[in-house]
Amino acid sequence: MDPVLYNDWHPVALSTQIAAGAMLAADLLETRVLLWRDAGGALHAWEDRCPHRGTRLSMGSLRDDTVRCPYHGWAFGKEGRCTHIPALPDAPLKAQVAVFHARERYGMAWVCLGAPTPAHAEPPAFPEFADEGLRKVWCGPYDVRASAPRIVENFLDMAHFAFVHEGILGDKERPVVPDYTVETFEDAQYGSGVWAKQCYAYQPQASHSASGGSDIEYTYRVVRPLTTILTKHPPGAIREAIALFSQPLTETSTRVWIIMALNDFVSSYDAMREFQDTIFLQDQPILESQHPARLPLTPGAEVSVLCDRMSLAYRAYLKQQDLHYGVIR
Fold this sequence. Notes:
This protein is an alpha+beta fold. It folds into two domains: 3-120, 3-layer Sandwich (Rieske Iron-sulfur Protein), CATH 2.102.10; 127-328, Alpha-Beta Complex (Naphthalene 1,2-dioxygenase Alpha Subunit, Chain A, domain 1). Helix content is 15%, strand content 36%. It has five helices and 19 strands. It has helices at residues 3-6, 148-155, 161-164, 269-289, 309-320, and strands at residues 10-14, 23-28, 31-37, 43-47, 61-63, 66-68, 75-76, 82-84, 99-105, 108-112, 135-144, 181-187, 191-203, 214-224, 227-233, 240-250, 253-262, 295-296, 327-328. The strands form four sheets. The protein has a seven-stranded antiparallel sheet, with helices on one face. Strands 1-10-9-4-3-2 form a six-stranded antiparallel sheet, with no helix packed on it. A four-stranded antiparallel sheet has the order 5-6-7-8, with no helix packed on it. β2 and β3 form a beta hairpin.
């Protein structure tokens, strides 16, 4: 397993999906994950596999903070240790379920399958989420037959607006992407990564609440290999930040979670979700058509032009991070 992703945090569910005394099955990096919440409200993440014969524990039951396998009734306590074998009640209890790190952040459950590094001790930064002046909208999840790096790269791309999102984020009569600045960054708010600033695009409808087209300034930040945040700066007092979090299921299949933080308190929650759904579902067939599905990091593997500078910076960042999963090196 790629240590870069194995030792990092990934979203796997909304916190509201896991009630006290309930279990939820998830998948992450080709690993079956069991999420469950104990009576005290604490979140637990285990391998969703009984060590006896490999059955999914999520098919079993949870009672009194004890998970019971549906196959032979083996019981496991909070720490993942076997506490009872019905067929052999006096047998030594040595079996242990693999236990993963779990956190709750931004209204979501996050899992690290390995050991979080000092640099990535917590889930990725999304500082706009803490701003009480911004409304939070959870969008997705979207299941995509594409690698997570391909999806992140698409999120960073502006040249497709005029063609994939015509009439909303772009206009075929105004397809030119002005030059912009790309730099690495390291700060207390976002951590470290690569960013593009002074990015401009004409958008007929920059958001659900927009009335008429305008030139929009974008700032993109890649804060982890599979996490990116954009902030939009349209005219007026509108503020908007969109975070894209990737849950890599396999090298070429990904579940995408999006959180918007914006000061639109007029539009309905459902209307804002539907607007984001429209944008992402326009991207999805493009992403699923790309070949190869994994993102090529080898120079010259794909033809790039000047407006691909952020894409190339992202690929260089992935190489610097020594990422191997979901890419071609």
